[in-house]
Amino acid sequence: MTIATSVHRDEVPGRAQRDQGFSIVELVVTIGILGVLIAPLMSAAIASIRASSSTRNLAQVQTVLQNAADRVNRAPKGCDYTVYAQAAAQSQGWAAGQATIVQSRYVPGSTPAAAGSWVSGACSGLVPDALLVQVVTVTVTSPDGSTKSSVQVVKSDI
Fold this sequence. Notes:
By secondary structure, the protein is α+β, with helices and mostly antiparallel strands.
């Protein structure tokens, strides 16, 4: 007579421990190790994104600034160059107010030996004087206000 024995998986020695899965301690330790490894990587990625954003802002400001300086430099002699700087900002899709200017002109001394001076405004009246020397300072600010840069353009008949 043959006796049939059935063996269940749970009864095989060593198999019961393998089928139980991971303990909560093992899971917590694994998650902790992953957190320690991933945190610096995330920090580096965030720093890289911020640096890229700053670089992009600076490049855009420099582009608008160069465009505005070129427009002011090529403009006919006049008493107000604001529209040229604002057009440069608007060509980038920015608000006109992102580009501002400060204008001044040189007023010679009363005699050749007397020193002249710089005064505010591009002209003394509504039309430019003969032999006029002007300095136009163009300032461009990024739309988010994080980057600002300036350049001076000298316009002269002399």
